[in-house]
Task: structure prediction
Amino acid sequence: MRFRSFIVGLIFSFAIGGVAFAGGVIKIGFFAPLTGFAAADGTSAKHGAMLAVEKINSNGGIMGKKLKLIVYDDAASSQQAVAIARKLIQENGVTAVVSGSYSTPTRASAPIYQRYKIPLVVAYATHPSITKAGDYVFRIGFLATVEGKAGGYVATKMLKAKRIAVLTMDNDFGRSLSKGFVEEATKNGAKIVANMSFALGEKDMSPFLTKIKALNPDLIYCTGYYSEGALTVKQAKDLGIKAQILGQEGFDSPMFLKIAQSAANGTIITTDLNRDDKRPVAKWFITQYKKEYKMEPDMVGASSFDAVYVLAEAIKKAGSTNAAKIRKALARIKNFNGVTGHIRGFTKTGEVVKPVQIQKVVNDRFTYFGVVDKPSIITPTK
Result:
């Protein structure tokens, strides 16, 4: 009887979502800011990664094994991200890692994964130096200068702005985005009438916005996360500013809409997720995310989903959990149909090539506004 119970239990332990596994797991490390100021983004990233693992396992896993996501909270801290990297590699023995975190922690820990030759797929951190860690680091989200250039293109070619004010969060994320934006906007003939910076966590944007209002720009380009973005659009409305506000993926969060409320309407952003995408993979993700987590999905969750799925595809193509074979398979990924768009592949430096989605807030929700698919914009040059 005991033997029979043991066999039944063994069969049950390998049956996940109706699929019988041959045994064993493939451990994938994952780190994100689950506490602190960035917890909303970190939670979305975790949700997206978990959804990908659930879908992969329900479809048979990889090589008869299920994926196991090993999750750590880095609290958006470089020190914690570095400690997590060592733990994932030395204690957990992961096959590969996905970063669901911001640029600063990812930038600090990427060299460790490179040193130990553990493939790292970065979901949405944008800083250019991340992939410079080496050939084991790949980025699913946009390089900051690419997204910044796309913003400059949207401002000048799609919105026809001539006089632009730039309001930049003074960190890796903000500075890198604004650099690409200013280069593209000025190349296209726009005049940058102001280029101001503010600290992460700034609560009062009115001094900056008051100065900007006096300059009468056509458009304000703002880098920042959802909190700073929401305060910017709210306080701009309170000051009677009529200029178009153009943001970026940091605004792409249900929290931006919740904090900004009606002031968010009319805001345009460059991002990774088209909520009106008709492709089955995107529609499934949006529907399933809402069903499982009782909230609207955002680009952070979508990017983390794609990061796990692309990594799983590379393991499958490699037919192995050998790190060198997975790295080679990642480099050869072509024409992958991701939630965040058609991923054409990676450059030699591990940067993704895919369209930039443009969303506009209408009736308190993100909606389709356009797409930037111009090769000279979306293809990283470095």
Summary: The longest helix spans residues 39-58. Residues 154 and 340 are 19 Å apart (CA to CA). Residues 2-142+278-350 form a domain with the Rossmann fold fold (CATH 3.40.50.2300). Confidence is low (pLDDT under 50) at residues 1-22.
